Amino acid sequence: MVFPKNIVIVEDETITQRYLQDIFTQYDAHVSGCFDNAVDTIEALKSIECDMILMDINIKGPVDGIQLTKEILRTY
Q: Average pLDDT for residues 39-64, to the nearest whole number?
């Protein structure tokens, strides 16, 4: 299985973040960052490489994963 080189995980559950990181590490994929809210994610995307984002719907803060995805699509 071929994964994108740089993956960003947006998930508010730390255990799930770690589990996903472990899976991708087994396939030599690089996790560029893990975030649990929209503000940190948007800020980080300005400076990190990202080929794929795994987005949870329910994340911390007033902006949910669907709204964040729409913002990312508009911006990038």
A: 97
